[in-house]
Specification:
13 strands, alpha/beta, 370 residues, Aspartate Aminotransferase, domain 2
């Protein structure tokens, strides 16, 4: 039985009527830019993330870019982030004119190491961008304690609806950061039928500026306080996301159930190291990512059996050709480099049925002779 890494058609089949109804309402209203669908989604995401403000934008990449701009980060500034993430995290730092500074990862969770982040901070550091990788939150409370005067931009592109216990209470992704950023790329746990993003914050002034920056820097049409961007969340995408949002908790629960099933199935396979979920974290498993011996051969074997998988990410950002000017070399971030050689993400989407999951498990176990 073929098993794709992600099956968006299976999800669409379950919610088609709800989504199409919401999209047709936007078409009938003929109001495609901002408007009520975006405002309703912003309120819902703010409620989910326990934040005062949520501001929609055109993509998760733009959410990071606008967050950096809202904190006046630019030429001569440094921003600390992880090299083991999607390119946009560091690309946006470069694109506002600042310098990405890479801190290595914790090998158990793949998230940024607080100790390494603290070690690379300088007087030029204007923000830290921790990434909540593969569905679990970074140790934001540790970063805040270690770097009390440095703003945190939480790249929560993979963790909408995830939470972590901090000081004895549940804290949602985006809640404790100076600015939290979400992506609605179709492959995300809450994905649109195109691109989209959102920023959340507790700060009134930051929210006001983010709203201005997304519409060419003007709070009033044709009057511009600064040069901003055309980065508005489409009303059609907002309608899709609003229809899908009530299902998010159930989808996340299904992903956790699939992950637990994999964990049990691979417990006696020493060649496969299952994900480590940090104490206090409730992951939403945007990916189920293992460390695997002979990773490339395993992936080729799975592909030959019609089983989807992916390597997130094959080359850490500090070794990307476009960042050669920063002067990093192999060995600069050894844990990120090691992870890039070993990680493999297996199917974990909510609609995955047990027989499909058993196909994945059987193929992995057979490869290693178990």
């Amino acid at each position: 039985m073929p098993v794709p890494l992600l099956d968006l058609r299976a999800q669409h089949a379950q919610i088609k009527d709800e989504v199409v109804r919401a999209m047709l309402q936007v078409v009938d209203d003929q109001l495609f830019i901002l408007g009520q669908p975006v405002e309703r989604l912003e309120r819902a995401v703010a409620e989910l993330s326990h934040t005062r403000f949520a501001i929609g934008c055109a993509s998760g990449t733009d959410a990071l870019l606008l967050a950096l701009r809202a904190l006046d980060i630019g030429h001569g500034d440094e921003v600390v982030t992880t090299p083991f993430t999607f390119f946009a995290t560091a690309g946006t730092i470069h694109n506002v004119g600042a310098t990405p500074v890479f801190a290595d990862i914790d090998p158990s969770t793949f998230n940024m190491s607080t100790a390494h982040a603290a070690a690379v901070v300088t007087s030029r550091t204007k923000a830290v961008v921790p990434v909540d990788l593969f569905g679990q939150m970074a140790r934001l409370e540790e970063l805040s304690a270690a770097l009390p005067n440095v703003p945190l931009i939480e790249d929560a592109a993979q963790t909408i609806g995830a939470r972590r216990t901090i000081d004895g209470e549940w804290v949602m992704a985006g809640e404790r950061a100076t600015i939290g950023t979400f992506s609605f790329f179709p492959s995300k746990n809450l994905g649109g039928y195109g691109d989209g993003g959102m920023m959340v914050t507790q700060d009134d002034a930051i929210a006001t500026r983010l709203k201005r920056l997304r519409v060419h820097g003007g709070a009033t049409q044709y009057f511009h306080d600064e040069v901003g961007y055309n980065s508005r969340l489409d009303s059609l995408q907002a309608a899709v996301l609003e229809a899908k949002l009530p299902h998010l908790a159930d989808w996340s629960r299904a992903r956790r159930e699939h992950a637990a099933y994999y964990d049990r199935a691979f417990a006696d396979v020493p060649e496969v190291r299952t994900p480590t979920i940090d104490a206090g974290n409730e992951s939403i498993y945007n990916q189920y990512t293992v460390r695997a011996d002979r990773r490339d051969a395993l992936q080729a074997s799975l592909k030959s059996k019609g089983i989807g998988s992916a390597v997130y990410y094959p080359l850490p950002l500090h070794l990307q050709p476009c960042f050669a000017y920063l002067g990093y070399r192999e060995g600069s971030c050894p844990e990120s480099e090691k992870a890039a050689r070993e990680v493999l993400s297996l199917p974990v989407y909510p609609e995955l049925i047990r027989t499909q999951q058993d196909e994945v498990i059987g193929a992995v176990r057979a490869f290693y002779g178990h």
